[in-house]
Amino acid sequence: MRTMLEKAGNPEVEVVLWDGSVITTATAPVSVRAHIRNRSTLYKLLFDPSLYFGDGYSLGTIEVEGGLVEFNEAIDQGTHKVDTQGFYRDRFRTSLSWLKRNTIDAARHNIHHHYDIGNDFYQLWLDEQLAYTCAYFPDPDDTLEAAQIAKMDHVCRKVGLKPGDSVVEAGCGWGALAIHMAKHYGVNVRAFNISREQLAYARERARREGLEKQVEFVEDDWRNITGSYDSFVSVGMLEHVGLKNYEELGRVIARCQRPHGRGLIHSIGCNSPRVLDSWTTKRIFPGAHVPSLSEFMRIFEPQKFSVLDVENIRLHYARTLEHWLERYEQNIDQVRDMFDETFIRTWRLYLSASVAAFRAGSLQLFQVVFTNGANNEIPWTRAGLYQDRESGSVEG
Amino acid sequence: MRTMLEKAGNPEVEVVLWDGSVITTATAPVSVRAHIRNRSTLYKLLFDPSLYFGDGYSLGTIEVEGGLVEFNEAIDQGTHKVDTQGFYRDRFRTSLSWLKRNTIDAARHNIHHHYDIGNDFYQLWLDEQLAYTCAYFPDPDDTLEAAQIAKMDHVCRKVGLKPGDSVVEAGCGWGALAIHMAKHYGVNVRAFNISREQLAYARERARREGLEKQVEFVEDDWRNITGSYDSFVSVGMLEHVGLKNYEELGRVIARCQRPHGRGLIHSIGCNSPRVLDSWTTKRIFPGAHVPSLSEFMRIFEPQKFSVLDVENIRLHYARTLEHWLERYEQNIDQVRDMFDETFIRTWRLYLSASVAAFRAGSLQLFQVVFTNGANNEIPWTRAGLYQDRESGSVEG
To answer: Which InterPro entries match (chains A, B) (predicted)?
Structure first.
């Protein structure tokens, strides 16, 4: 156990065993500790710390004292201290992950696993429009609702939507962005998703708001996008695409985005190539991969797209997740009416560890704006993104 | 010749031979044509079009009608049309370029070749502060002088300079940015350069402005940077570093930038890995390489730096170069007093082809802001870059 902590960069935590003995490599008094309830949990931990810490926590054979976010943050900060030789090891492991193909069938299965567990559940802790991606807080004290709207406006401004434009959205969740673009920017949207529950919700909302003619929700994979559009927009789908399919994604974009259009991909990322921890990829997001920027570029470089703007809003995702976690805990009784205790603890850990990862810098959030390499119809500066922010959308 | 034009994507140009015969693959009437004066120039062109177009133009065995910028732009636009299979060929050729090492000695030779040909010459066509890098025009109609100051402020704001900070600058040219930072932001700067003529000018200017205590100009290679600083800044040096040395550059930055500091690298780049044309690397910038963003990331990813912001201001470089070319032609008589006609034509072609390359999208200009992966002392949004722009610098 001590060796494991050393390998993990000596995080400022303590591990307390079932017999009361304390294991730590911390050099100062710590405020967070994990309690391991039995020997078999310890053995599993030594075998695959990420997977069995998660599973142990879910099952209650591991308890955490001093805050679940804080414990995970201490672990992540330890990992950062481990030397950069990890770069080559991680790059090698990432290259192995190419063996996993997110085929259309596998993608459908993976997406169903996470997103089709009930809209009611997500309504308990997301914002009122069910935007399940990083918000953008012009002011850190903005409400989650305001920050999700600001994020949508930020995206619309970055791709420069004009009334009458056509937009294709890959991975549209519950449809918040598609509907926002149609309603406030006067554009026509075709939005693709393979989560049936999300689509049913999105279609119903579009119908209710009288936007069925402007927004078409399509139940299909991004690989099957056809047609030609002014903008390709994708917010929070790339994480599920799989590294091996990035070049294909680039070809799809090149095929469907018009020469003068600007596109945007918004995705969780990381600072150097790595594979996600085993717990996240087994229990939370099967098939997920979060790209470093060099990996991200595999979408654009083969097509000679011009990357115009990359913004990293990592701390905004920490803030977003803090809101989600707070709402989750506030509504925990209602979650308990829907799911068992293992589920409750799994999702508590997932949200808490995610807050920690974005705070500690283990994860990033990239928004990348790109266009055809020969397109000169691009904004002269980015100043327009920061004008009249208070008034919300610029058109519509 | 016709085959060569086809391979080059059928650019909208004509080639007129010494006997008056016209070769073209253009589909519409063209406004630009090249005249080839003799047979040996044609043969050389077929062997290495880039190198011998340049050499032929310099020597006057090739003349261009309809505008040198416009001719080059038509050529570049043709190249874009060539299919994207070129990606793999170019990536292979780029990997071969790793064989070239820009050692300290080679770097010194290469830099001397371009930058030590006389400050008087550069004074004829650069701005009054001799900033020989892409300017930033908040308004496209700004003067070159104003745009170079705006560029320096843009850089200083991006790295968040505060009075009393220390900055190391790698590749400082004639010292404009180092002096600007010291004078307007109250920081202490150590600026490295291996061009002796530039350094002599920079030191004299710092002395004249009473800034010797705040700005130290060091005649040494970036590999020999020592000490610890709040910010690492490099504007227009990366082009000379050589792809093989990017990881070493990252290690130097990791060694010398403090954990809470932000750094910035400003460099010409391209949309996908490629080698520069043979004329540019033989006659203008020996040892030069312009990175794609995935290549750029080789500086940051092994060190697990967090990339916060990438801005592509390609069209600003086209504008900058238009100013330089215009001043160059305005002062051509004075250039003629210093150099022979071959030199004059070489530099005319270099400036014109560069305008064309940035206009056509063959070259990009990236500003990349980065920091230590665990640093949370980062700006909440980028809005601060766009406030009170008119008033110039924010401090000092």
So the answer is: CFA/CMAS (IPR050723), CMAS (IPR003333), DUF7884 (IPR057206), SAM-dependent_MTases_sf (IPR029063)
The distance of A69 to chain B (nearest Cα, Å) reads 16
Q: Which domain holds residue B15?
A: 2-82
B331/A contact by beta carbon, under 8 A? no
From the CA atom positions of chain A, what is the Rg in Å? 22
Q: Last residue of a domain, which of B48, B82, B116?
A: B82
d(CA A70, CA A48): 21
A146 touches chain B (CB under 8 A): no
Q: Is A85 on the interface with B (CB under 8 A)?
A: no
Q: Is B218 exposed, middle or buried (0-12, 13-18, 19+ CB in 10 A)?
A: middle
Domain count within chain A: 2
Whether A150 and A220 map to the same domain: the answer is: yes
* Residue in B262, B310, B322 to test binding to A, most A beta-carbons within 10 Å: B310
A63 and A111: one domain?
A: no
Q: How far, in Å, CA of B126 to CA of B144, rounded?
A: 9
The Cβ of residue B192 has, within 10 Å, a number of other Cβ atoms equal to 23
Residues of B in contact with A315 (CB under 8 A): 376, 378, 380
Q: What is the ipTM of this complex?
A: 0.94
- pTM beyond cutoff 0.90: yes
Nearest to B374 among A77, A292, A387 (CB): A77
Residues B77 and B165 in one domain: no
Single residue among A55, A82, A109 that ends a domain in this structure: A82
Is B40 part of a structural domain of the chain? yes
pLDDT tens digit sequence for B117-168: 889 999 999 999 999 999 999 999 999 999 999 999 999 999 999 999 999 9
Across the beta sheet with B33-36, the strand order is B22-23, B14-16, B33-36, B62-65
pLDDT single digits (tens) A234-264: 999 999 999 999 999 999 999 999 999 999 9
CB-nearest partner of B306 from A302, A361, A389: A361
Size of interface A-B (CB pairs under 8 A): 142
Structure tokens at B113: 């070749």
All residues at 6 or more sequence positions from A8 whose CB lies less than 8 Å from its CB, including other chains: A49, A75, A78, A79, A82
A72 lies in the same domain as A102 = no
Q: Which of residues 337-366 of A touch B (CB under 8 A)?
A: 359-361, 364
Contacts with B381 from chain A: Cβ below 8 Å: 136, 138, 313, 386
């600058």: which residue's tokens? B169
Q: Does B308 touch chain A (CB under 8 A)?
A: yes
Residue A90 within a domain: no
Q: Is residue A89 part of a domain?
A: no
